[in-house]
Amino acid sequence: MHDENRTTHDVFDDYAKYYDLLYDDKPYAEEAAFAARLVTAHCPNAREVLELGCGSGRHAEHLARAGFSVCGVERSPAMLDAARARRATLDAATAARIDLREGDILDLDLGHRFDAVVSLFHVMSYMTTNADLRAAFGAAARHLRPGGVFVFDCWYGPCVLAEPPREARRTAQADGIRLERMTRPELDVRANAVSVHFELTVDREDEPPRTIRETHRMRYLFSPEVEGFMEEAGLALAESGEWMTGRAADRDTFGVYFVGVLRG
């Protein structure tokens, strides 16, 4: 068996080969629809959407199917390749509404403003320092038209502290590939972060099994600090709640969403 170790910065380049298989059961269409409802609730005429951290493009696909013009930005070249491959399989009208670009949220400047910015599947929780969070909120605000909205989801601090993430196992199988991923979280309360240690075993019919070990550092956020970061960036907190339900967040709510509106 071959072992590999990955850091947070390069993990998605190797992970991209197996990412969609691991998350094949994730309700991307429903999540995109929920995000779209939040966007249109606060910006009824929204047409152009910037997605920060678009990954393999599955949310972008469904946003485009809903009629939005989507610009997806992704740091990982391999994930971006996966998104481009997905776009190539779509009908011409949907594909034409998706623009994919390589870029880093922390220093992004596309020279264009959008009606809405979205960042989904906990991308903002990968911003683990205050400096990174300020840069990410600044990037969102910089790319919004006045009155535009920023929608994102993240790990919710009260729930993480009340019920810390536990060890977990996930398996997936398709087309001669079997995946097994073991997850071991390590809570760092002084940094408001969790180091999530993954061990991914890839078993293919045509080669020996290999194991990839990696660590994702995730920041859990609290409503007052989110509001503070938004204010610094010129955004006003307009709404927050439990991701996918809209209910008020509490200590049992692991994933929350926030909506900020650009002042001006």
TrEMBL record:
<protein>
    <submittedName>
        <fullName>SAM-dependent methyltransferase</fullName>
    </submittedName>
</protein>
<dbReference type="GO" id="GO:0008168">
    <property type="term" value="F:methyltransferase activity"/>
</dbReference>
<dbReference type="InterPro" id="IPR029063">
    <property type="entry name" value="SAM-dependent_MTases_sf"/>
</dbReference>
<keyword id="KW-0808">Transferase</keyword>
<keyword id="KW-0949">S-adenosyl-L-methionine</keyword>
<keyword id="KW-0489">Methyltransferase</keyword>
<dbReference type="GO" id="GO:0032259">
    <property type="term" value="P:methylation"/>
</dbReference>
<dbReference type="InterPro" id="IPR041698">
    <property type="entry name" value="Methyltransf_25"/>
</dbReference>
<dbReference type="Pfam" id="PF13649">
    <property type="entry name" value="Methyltransf_25"/>
</dbReference>
<feature type="domain" description="Methyltransferase">
    <location>
        <begin position="49"/>
        <end position="148"/>
    </location>
</feature>
